[in-house]
Predict the structure.
Amino acid sequence: MARRLIRTVLLAGLLTVLLGVAAAATIEVRDFDDPQLARRYTTLTHQLRCPKCQNETIAASASPIAADMRERVAAMLEAGRSDREIQDFLVQRFGEYVLYRPRLSPRTWLLWGGPFLLVGLGGVILAWRVRRRTAPRALDAAERRRLDALLDREDRS
């Protein structure tokens, strides 16, 4: 029993190490002479989404398209382009989807304002339902007769 547990733990540890080495080997490390360029590169690659992997940054993705995007970002940084110019180029090539934080424009108003609209609509519906439940309503004829009968019975007791 103890041998089996030790073997399982060792196998799990080995698998973890192998997966970590494989993950580290798939993404290249880029060296810049200027530390500011290195910071900008890191920031940009963490702000851009991989078009193939969908919910992964190009910094974390091992796909070939993410590698190409990282290469383009590095080349454009070294060419002296601004962060905005680099983002504009990638948006033009891949669409707004590559930005983790889409820009505020008429096309994205619903994206930015949608959650607030839904919360506001939910609040209005909730207030309407609570008000409707707590508002007193008039008794109909059958309810009125039943109430009178109950009150007459209590007066006799």
Observations:
- Residues 109-134 form the longest helix (26 residues).
- The radius of gyration is 32 Å.
- The mean pLDDT is 83.
